[in-house]
């Protein structure tokens, strides 16, 4: 018989994580832990990591569903296509937990050259918001770390300061030498976004994520049609949980890219559907984390490694926490690696 429990954990970033929507000083995630009463030492673990300010679900929703799942473990597979569709982070936690059980709790969920330590996943370096001097130092740190694709959060400082930072990079590195991405998290409006996009285009910026707030579909359609910088939808994907809704969004808005966060869209199956719908329309895509701990990041990275990606993905966030779960994941020279010789430390999961 399957048994289950859950834990709520608050993680501490090494520094305040600044975005245009505010500063993240702490991050709460939930772990779903399951085992067979005949093999209590084999424990499957999944992580629910909703993102306040982005997710449509709330902490109370997560706790309620976890209590229900632990009270009745007999119908998890059925619930994946039922009520859990409305709580994407918990749905993903269940997917992870079941697959980890099948893998005897090894955390090797998708065996590949990646999990053997032979291949890495290309990633972008992420530059969080801060004051201008701090951001300049963070950009340099990403470049010094070997990243040849750098994504900078914009929309919190004065735009002139942000453009000056990007221009400083471009004076040293051409577009062939260093890819620049920006993520606005919806910071701009329909009225003021186009001049910004025109100046970003002159700096050879590869793409901008979510330039205006999610849900403004008519405005976003116009932006995607006229922007000189390719537009990637991010937050706009959240909450579209059925196939028809995904198709309608992509057909109407026609972005150049979509950014898929499995924790926020409902896990691997939901993310794969977004990929399939995007490919059918000639829309590019990449996968990013949503500041999960090592458990969730590992689940996303191993799955991403099976997709044959070549463009940089957004999976370099595991190092932001001072108290993350020790895991085999490691970032080196612009890529994420799985080092099987480095053990997991799952003592935090002990009963």
Description:
By secondary structure, this protein is an alpha/beta fold. It folds into two domains: 2-102, Enolase-like, domain 1 (2-Layer Sandwich), CATH 3.30.390.10; 121-349, Alpha-Beta Barrel (TIM Barrel). It has eleven helices and 15 strands. It has helices at 59-71, 76-80, 88-102, 132-144, 159-172, 193-202, 217-226, 243-253, 262-265, 268-280, 294-305; strands at residues 2-11, 17-19, 22-24, 27-36, 39-48, 121-122, 125-127, 149-153, 179-183, 205-209, 231-233, 257-260, 284-287, 329-332, 335-338. The strands form four sheets. A seven-stranded parallel sheet has the order 7-8-9-10-11-12-13. α6 links the parallel β9 (179-183) and β10 (205-209). α8 packs parallel to α10 (268-280). The longest helix is centred in the first third of the chain and has 15 residues, at 88-102. The model has no long low-confidence stretch (mean pLDDT 95).
Instruction: Give helix % range.
Output: 25-40%
**Multimer state:** single chain
The CATH topology of the largest domain is: TIM Barrel
Tally of individual domains: 2
Question: What is the CATH architecture annotation of the largest domain?
Answer: Alpha-Beta Barrel
Task: Provide a compact summary of the structure.
This protein is α/β, with parallel strands linked by helices and 351 residues long. Helix content is 34%, strand content 21%. It has 2 domains: 2-102, Enolase-like, domain 1 (2-Layer Sandwich), CATH 3.30.390.10; 121-349, TIM Barrel.
């Amino acid at each position: 018989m399957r048994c289950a429990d859950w834990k709520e954990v608050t993680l501490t970033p090494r520094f305040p994580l600044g975005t245009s929507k505010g500063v993240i000083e702490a991050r709460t995630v939930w772990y779903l832990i399951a085992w067979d009463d005949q093999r209590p030492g084999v424990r499957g673990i999944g992580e629910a990591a909703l993102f306040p300010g982005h997710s449509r679900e709330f902490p109370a929703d997560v706790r309620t569903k976890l209590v229900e799942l632990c009270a009745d473990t007999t119908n998890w597979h059925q619930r994946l296509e039922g009520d859990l569709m409305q709580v994407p982070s918990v749905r993903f936690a269940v997917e992870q937990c079941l697959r980890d059980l099948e893998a005897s709790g090894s955390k090797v969920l998708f065996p590949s050259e990646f999990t053997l330590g032979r291949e890495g996943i290309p990633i972008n370096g992420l530059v969080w918001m801060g004051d201008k001097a701090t951001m300049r130092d963070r950009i340099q740190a990403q470049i010094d770390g070997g990243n040849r694709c750098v994504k900078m959060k914009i929309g919190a400082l004065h735009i002139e300061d942000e453009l000056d930072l990007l221009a400083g990079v471009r004076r040293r590195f051409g577009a062939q030498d260093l890819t620049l991405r920006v993520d606005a998290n919806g910071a701009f409006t329909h009225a003021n976004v186009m001049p910004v996009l025109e100046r970003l285009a002159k700096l050879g910026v590869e793409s901008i994520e979510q330039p205006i707030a999610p849900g403004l579909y008519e405005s976003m359609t116009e932006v995607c049609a006229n922007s000189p910088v390719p537009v990637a939808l991010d937050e706009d994907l959240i909450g579209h949980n059925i196939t028809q809704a995904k198709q309608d969004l992509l057909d109407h808005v026609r972005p150049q890219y979509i950014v898929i966060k499995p924790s926020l869209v409902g896990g691997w199956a939901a993310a794969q559907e977004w990929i399939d719908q995007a490919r059918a329309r000639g829309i590019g895509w990449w996968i990013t984390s949503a500041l999960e701990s090592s458990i969730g990041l590992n689940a996303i990275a191993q799955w991403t490694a099976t997709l044959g990606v070549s463009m940089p993905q957004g999976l370099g966030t595991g190092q932001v926490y001072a108290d993350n779960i020790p895991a085999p994941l490691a970032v080196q020279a612009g890529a994420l690696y799985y080092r099987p010789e480095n053990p997991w430390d799952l003592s935090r999961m002990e009963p």
